[in-house]
């Protein structure tokens, strides 16, 4: 088995730090993080959180420069998160709950930008 490229290892490490920061941000906003890094054949969900009867499936994007955040998420990535969320929703939803896809964009020295209801099922 070959070792991943050093740049890939750095990106993975930074992605995990971004997800941890996003989880702290959500907790500060009153969300309870239910799961992190949930993978299934349809894709991956970075965070799943609940506040009241709303369950959110969150894609987290971290970039070294804030200017890069506008291009960090695209329709293909959102579609994969939506598909993964549909496959996992039954594990996290209760009767009467609502769900949505959110995106959290993070960059050093900036407050997180929370895009609520960014994807469609």
TrEMBL record:
Q: Which domain of life is it from?
A: Bacteria
> What Pfam families does this protein map onto?
UPF0102
Q: What is this protein called?
A: UPF0102 protein EKN06_02525
**Family matches, as PANTHER family:** UPF0102 PROTEIN YRAN
Q: Which Gene3D superfamilies match?
A: 3.40.1350.10
The record's comment on protein family reads: Belongs to the UPF0102 family.
Q: What organism is listed for this UniProt entry?
A: Croceicoccus ponticola
GO-annotated molecular function: nucleic acid binding
